[in-house]
Amino acid sequence: MQYKIRAAKREDYDVVPELMLQAMEDIVFSFIQKQDIEEAINFLTILFKKPNNLYSYENTFVAVDEDDNVVGSVTGYNGDDFYKLREPVLELMKKQYNNDMTPEPETEGSEFYLDTVAVSPIVQGKGVGSHLLKFAVDFAKEKGFKQVGLIVDLENPGAMKLYTRLGFKQGKALDFVGGEYYHMYVD
After folding, report:
1. Phi-psi region at 109: left, alpha or beta (left = phi > 0; alpha = psi -120 to 50)
2. Torsion angle of alpha carbons 184, 136, 8, 24, nearest 10°?
3. Which domains does the chain have, with CATH numbers?
4. Residue-wise pLDDT tens digits, 131-145
5. What keywords tag this UniProt record (predicted)?
6. CB under 8 Å to 166, separation ≥6 — which residues?
7. Tens-digit pLDDT profile for residues 166-185
8. Cα–Cα distance between 142 and 140 in angstroms, integer?
9. Quick check: 69 and 63 in contact, CB under 8 A?
10. Are 113 and 77 in contact (CB under 8 A)?
11. Closest Cα partner for 62 from 21, 136, 8?
């Protein structure tokens, strides 16, 4: 089956936040300060529907099947805009969850940063993730970025293997929201 990639629409909010949750589960639970899947989806949905934030539909591409059903997503942005795009996330954490936490930066800037990459369980192992990543790297290159980066959990060797196969190199280790990650990048 062939999957098409398109820019996300605001209306994709009924699927994409669940995919994002799959990519960030423990991180989102830290943001909302509870292990509540429905509340985590609500948090991501609020942000996905709004412009100008890390998790906005504006920064997201989706893989769709022939019936336009969303089966995967990748969210990325200019790493130099990280702090500006993070502000609405921090504001929502404070206002709705009384959480003053300021997570460590995931990117040092000077790259197109891939924040979340997720594939629906029904199509995992069918190349959708690779297709999304290749698309995102090509998009970044077209926009003039010299590097595309992401972080990968040290406890997720499968993802690390995929990124390495697609040309990503292992960068430095970093702590993020209580977990240990590697920054990986492709030039």
Report:
1. left
2. -10
3. 4-186 (3.40.630.30)
4. 999 999 999 999 999
5. Acyltransferase, Transferase
6. 130, 133, 134, 137, 186
7. 999 999 999 999 899 999 99
8. 5
9. no
10. yes
11. 8
